[in-house]
Structures are given as structure tokens and as C-alpha cells.
Write a structure and sequence with these properties.
alpha+beta, disordered N terminus, 2-enoyl-CoA Hydratase, Chain A, domain 1, 8-stranded mixed sheet, 9-stranded antiparallel sheet, about 35% strand
């Protein structure tokens, strides 16, 4: 989350057909003298060079509200029905294994889950069968020692459209013979929704969860309805599932003149650190954990592509705005080399100070 430091769209589709290729400038660059000739080769013209295999992923600030509104409407269309009882989807995302995909659907405040397991090659089909399990327990939080309870299992039918609308139907059964009729409709928008919760307490707003589309809507609504709030407190934020939107979430935090603050018990990582950087004044209380890493999306990995690659442009613009023209880009590239995308590095207190990520470090 900045799990793939790219949009959730490419992260999801990348799970279907991942190809391994060496990310060298030679293979990435096409021979072209100008933008027109670059476009003729289906390349991407950026700073006088023609880049292969890259498509414009960014969302313009003038369009982000309409994009979020459209995604929120699409999210509202999704649902889980268990024995005809309808619930909202809290989390929906495919996890890539070596040969199989786990498709996770969490609902009832993340306390119930339908997990599908199937061969990755199945996703090339429009319809296929998958092994399913109905679990109780928050598997997203990853609490050690808390094993989810299996309520039922069996085979479910999956229908997949070209737009990544997903329908899952069938019946699961447990050893006692109890059956659970399953009916799920999900789409690409809900994959990037996030799980964030925002609570206003006097003049501070506290946020936890995975950042995504709903986070932008929550913070924009908070800024409008609670003009007295001056600080966004990040508590437990594991990252962002929709980085394109997350950059705009940070932008509106900065434009509203809000500060950001971490508690001694705060644990933020990846896109959570990006959002923390948006504060005008940024306070870190000793004991807070700040995790950074590289990103991966599709065929690209942030720490393997050259620094002049266009995939860096939006993050570079963001950190330049938030942390200055010299320190911002340097900090961004530091995060890419701190740990690979599948890992995490927790910054020391001294590093937080030296990178000026915090404008104020306090003991309590």
C-alpha cells in the first residue's frame, strides 16, 4: 500500500499477467526526435525523451473531485450478501502468490471475509470456479496470535468482465451441514476505496486505516464541516491502496493549512508517511514508527528505474511541494532505496530529524 506505489488499477491488473524484464534505460527508451514521432511509436514523451511501456497514470487536480465522486458512486454499488443479508464491502483486493491468486472480500467492519483461491491463469477467462472459504476475524489487521474462524467452505462461481466488474456466487457449507448462500458484486473502484476511519475530537481529526478514495472524501468533508480543526493526527495507517488519490488527499491537507501529528503510539507506513508529509507543521512524538520503502506496479519498481523516468514525476512534484525543492526529491529517492516494495524500513529518530520530515520532535 504504497504497497504498489502506483494506482490500484495497475496494481490489480499487474497481478494477472506479470512479466519480468530488466528495467534499464536502454530497453525503456525509444528513438524519437519529438513528441509526435514518440506518440507514433506508442511511447510517452517526457522531458525530451520517448519512454516505452508507460501510460499517463496521474489525475489532474481539476478532475480529482469528479473522479472521486464517480468512484464513490461505483463503490456504493458493490455489496456482499450472505444468506440474502446485504452488507457493504470494506476491503476487496487480489493477493498474488507464486501460482495462485487469493481474492479477499472483507465486510462487517472487516470482521467477516470471503476468501477465494484460484490459478492465476483463470483470470484470462470470463467465468471460472474457485475454492472459497467464509472466515470470521479481522485478517486485514494482521494481529499475531489471532487465527480467523472458518465458518464454511466450498466452490464458488466467478464472473469477470473486461472492466474488472466481479460477480461471485454460490453456496458454502460447514461440517455440520449449515449452508451460506454467497452473492458478491465488486469492481475496480472498491479495490481502491481504502478502510480509513476519521474522527473529529475538538480541534483535531484522528485517522486510522488504509488510505484510499474514501479518505479523500472524508478529509474534504471534514475540512468543509469542521473549519476549527487545525491538526490531522495519524494513528495506525498502514499505507495507501490508491496512491493517485492519496497525493491529492495530501494536497488538500496542505492547501487547508492543516498540521499533522504522530502520537507516541502511532504506526504509519508507506502512503501514510506521504500523507504525514503534507502537514504545514509536522510533529512526531518519540516512540512513533514511520516506515518507508520503494514501490512496485506492473513491470516497474521504483528503486530499479532511472531517476528521470516519468513514473517518478507525480511523487517528485508532491514531495517538492511538501518538503522543498531540494529536500523533497532527495527524501523521495531515499525512500526508494530504504527497502524494496515487499519490505519496510523504519526510520530512526535521527533520520526523521535529518530529513526534516518532522518540523517538531518531542519526547511526549
Amino acid at each position: 500500500m504504497r504497497a504498489a506505489h502506483k494506482t490500484f488499477f495497475s496494481a490489480a491488473i499487474a497481478l494477472l499477467l506479470v512479466t519480468a524484464w530488466s528495467c534499464t534505460s536502454e530497453k525503456m527508451l525509444l528513438s524519437a526526435s519529438d513528441e509526435a514521432s514518440c506518440l507514433g511509436k506508442e511511447g510517452y514523451w517526457y522531458k525530451g525523451e520517448c519512454w516505452a511501456g508507460f501510460e499517463e497514470p496521474g489525475i489532474d487536480a481539476t478532475n480529482v473531485d469528479s473522479v472521486v465522486n464517480a468512484q464513490m458512486k461505483a463503490i456504493d454499488q458493490t455489496y456482499v450478501r450472505i444468506n440474502d443479508k446485504r452488507r457493504a464491502i470494506n476491503f476487496f483486493f487480489p493477493e498474488q502468490g507464486e501460482k495462485e491468486i487469493l481474492l479477499i472480500t472483507s465486510f462487517n467492519e472487516l470482521e467477516e471475509n470471503i476468501i477465494l483461491s484460484f490459478d492465476a491463469r483463470s483470470m484470462k477467462k470470463k467465468a471460472f470456479k474457485a475454492s472459497g472459504a467464509y472466515l470470521r476475524g479481522n485478517i486485514i489487521a494482521g494481529d499475531e496470535g489471532l487465527e480467523p474462524e472458518t465458518l464454511a467452505s466450498g466452490q464458488l462461481s466467478v464472473t469477470l468482465t473486461e472492466d474488472f466488474d466481479v460477480t461471485i456466487t454460490g453456496t458454502l457449507q460447514n461440517e455440520g451441514g449449515q449452508t451460506f448462500k454467497v452473492d458478491i458484486f465488486a469492481n475496480e473502484a472498491v479495490m481502491g476505496a481504502g478502510t480509513s476511519r476519521l474522527e473529529v475530537r475538538e480541534k483535531e481529526a484522528f485517522i486510522s486505516g488504509t488510505l484510499g478514495t474514501i479518505t479523500y472524501a472524508q478529509i474534504k468533508d471534514m475540512i468543509s464541516k469542521h473549519p476549527d480543526v487545525h491538526t490531522l493526527v495519524l494513528d495506525q495507517v498502514d499505507g495507501s491502496i490508491n496512491d493517485d488519490i492519496n497525493l491529492h488527499t495530501g494536497r488538500i491537507v496542505r492547501e487547508a493549512g492543516l498540521n499533522t501529528r504522530l502520537l507516541s503510539t502511532s504506526h504509519i507506513a508507506s502512503g501514510g508517511v506521504d500523507l504525514f508529509a503534507s502537514g504545514v507543521e509536522r510533529t512526531v512524538v518519540k516512540g512513533a514508527k514511520l516506515g518507508v520503502h520503494s514501490w512496485a506496479g506492473g513491470d516497474l519498481k521504483g528503486d530499479e528505474i532511472p531517476q528521470n523516468h516519468p513514473a517518478h514525476q507525480y511523487q517528485l512534484a508532491y514531495f517538492t511541494k511538501m518538503m522543498g525543492s531540494r529536500n523533497g526529491p532527495a527524501f523521495y529517492f531515499y525512500t526508494l532505496t530504504s527497502a524494496p516494495a515487499e519490505s519496510i524500513y523504519y526510520m530512526t529518530h535521527d533520520e526523521v530529524r535529518e530529513w526534516k520530515l518532522a518540523t517538531r520532535l518531542v519526547d511526549h
